[in-house]
Amino acid sequence: MTLPIQDRFPAARRAATVFAAAGTALASMLLTAPSAHAADSDITFSAVVINKGKPIVVGTGAEIEVPMTYTVRTKAKLDDWSIRVYRGTFGSNSRGLAIGTIQWNCMQSSAGGYTYHDCDESLQIDPLMLPGGKKLVNSDATTWKTAGLAIKVGGGYDDDLLAYTTRLKRASLIESADASPEPVTKGKPITVKGTLKRANWDTHRYDLYGGQKVTLQFKAAGTTTYTNVKTLTTTSTGALKTTVTAAKDGTWRWYYAGDSVTGAKATTGDYVDVR
Question: Which of 186, 192, 152, 147 is nearest to 166 (CA)?
């Protein structure tokens, strides 16, 4: 019999309960703590890394899972603990990002009178369902803060405002990417098209994204690396269109590097046979 994920890892917890289950003590602390209090020196959170240090890119509908690792050092015995990603002033009015957390592993060790928990988790982020019944909006494409929270055995809690931050970006996509004709005679023109769009979290759809620099790239047959061919600026309707000369077999793609609030995107590539 195949066990559920949480049962295959006995030491782990399905921490969707942390943010979503209203009955747990930690959920209450996460969502209703009025303000940060003096941190308990016997409990510290460190080595936080979210999404391997890269910005989190979110679209308009699908829930995503984002990797997160961190360490808890404690002299106190703990019932539970978590990292919260939030905006605003920490407390009941702050804006939380993850609707839940899956803890895949949390290795325990001891040294110098402290217990260490080295945790490997995934944040569950749904653009249509943030904590408190909220949704992502375009102004959420910014820097988010983190806080560590712990519930002690027998009562009491600790919250630590952490220095670590993460960046949230709106997803981009390039529709109708195409290189034609296929096949093509050597020396003849190849026309490459596409349309750049960006997630609009206010309306939860993808809108045309004009005025952006997008690079046309080429990977020759038998090679593994794309090279830049030329850079275009999308029209007001996000359109891309250019012509290149057919010289050898290979794959053409568009690459958008993104901007401060928009994630990068590369098309899958379109192979053209040159004869």
Answer: 147
